[in-house]
Structure formats: C-alpha cells, structure tokens
Amino acid sequence: MKRVLIVYDTKHGSTKKVSEWVKQGVEAKGVGCVVKHVSEVTHLGYDAVIIGSPIYYEKPTKLVTGFLSRNQESLKNRVVGVFVVCMTDFFEHLPQFFLKRLINSLGKEPDAKTVFGGELEGISRLNEKACNDFGKKFRELL
Ligand SMILES: Cc1cc2nc3c(=O)[nH]c(=O)nc-3n(C[C@H](O)[C@H](O)[C@H](O)COP(=O)(O)O)c2cc1C
C-alpha cells in the first residue's frame, strides 16, 4: 500500500476543500491518502507528499513556506507535488510567480505543480474535477 500525505493551510476553508478533492483523485486500490492541516503534521513517513497553500497578498502562507523550508531534507528524496489556490487567472505569469514562491521554499523542482482557483466574497472559481484530475495524475508518479 502506497501512502500519500496532503498538507495544506487555509484561512477561509477553500484550500481544505481543494485538498479533499485532490485526495479523491489520489485514492485508488493500493494507494491511501490522508489530508492534514500543516499544524497537525508530526512526521513525513509517507511515499509522497503534496503541499498546498492559499495565496494572500501574492504570497503562500508563512506556515506553509516555513514547513517546506524546515523539511527540505526529508522531502528531497520523495515524490512531491505542490499547488496554490488563488483568484488570479487574468495573467498567466502571476499565478506561476506565486507557485515559484512556494517552490523556492521547497528548494527543488517538484514532480507535479499546479494552480487552482479559489473563492472570495461569494465568487467561486473552485473546480472539483480539476482537483480530482491533478490527484489522479499525481498517483501515476508513484
Ligand atoms: C485579504 C486577501 C488577500 C488576497 N490576496 C490575493 C492575491 O494576492 N492574489 C490572489 O490571486 N488571490 C488573493 N486572495 C484570494 C485568495 O487566494 C482566495 O480567496 C483563496 O480561495 C483563499 O483560500 P482559503 O479559503 O484556503 O484561505 C486574497 C484573499 C483575501 C481575503
């Protein structure tokens, strides 16, 4: 049984929802997945780890970047995916820049990365299928 950990932070809940949808995509026969808030992670004894952060003021949260910086060594030889959740989709380069900020803290190029739409003040760009699909693709890397 392969085991995947999804680590997220959130202020208003959308990155938690996204993480649960990614989990649905990852899970399959022989592949288990758990979702944990970054503050709940006690060890990284998993085959692969996906880390997701919402974007606030053009940055991933400090809890997530701190987690990545602290765990660079443990994540070095593991399959790693990253994603950000934000409302920007007008200019392709800007979400990529948010993602880059997360990757800088990871200290290596992740095996999978993506940007998901979030929700803000009643406007939703959440896309359950896109999250499921990312999870499924990630599972193929195991
Ligand atoms: C105060 C504030 C600042 C934000 N700053 C940005 C931003 O700089 N770029 C962006 O694309 N989205 C920004 N957003 C949108 C959030 O990324 C979006 O609401 C996301 O779904 C929040 O995730 P969460 O519900 O997991 O906390 C901001 C939202 C708030 C409330």
Describe the protein's architecture and organization.
- The protein is α/β, with parallel strands linked by helices and 142 residues long.
- The protein has a single domain (2-139), classed as Rossmann fold.
- 37% of the residues lie in helices and 30% in strands.
- It is built from 5 helices and 8 strands, in the order E-H-E-E-E-H-H-E-H-E-E-E-H.
- Strand 7 and strand 8 (123-124) form a beta hairpin.
- The protein is globular and about 40 Å long.
- Bound molecules: flavin mononucleotide.
- Flavin mononucleotide binds at residues 10-15, 54-58, 85-88, 118-120.
Can you give keywords for this protein?
142 residues, Rossmann fold, binds flavin mononucleotide, two-stranded antiparallel sheet, single chain, 5 helices, six-stranded mixed beta sheet, alpha/beta
Distance between the termini: 11 Å
- Helical content, roughly? 25-40%
CATH class: Alpha Beta
Q: Kindly estimate the percentage of residues that lie in beta strands according to DSSP.
A: 25-35%
Order of helices and strands: EHEEEHHEHEEEH
Write the CATH homologous superfamily.
Answer: Flavodoxin domain
Main beta-sheet annotation: 6 strands, mixed
Overall pLDDT:
96
- Rg, nearest Å: 14 Å
Question: pLDDT below 50 for ≥5 consecutive residues: which ranges?
Answer: none
The total number of structural domains is 1
User: What is bound: which ligands?
Assistant: flavin mononucleotide
**CATH domain topology:** Rossmann fold
> What structural category do the secondary elements indicate?
alpha/beta
Count of beta strands: 8
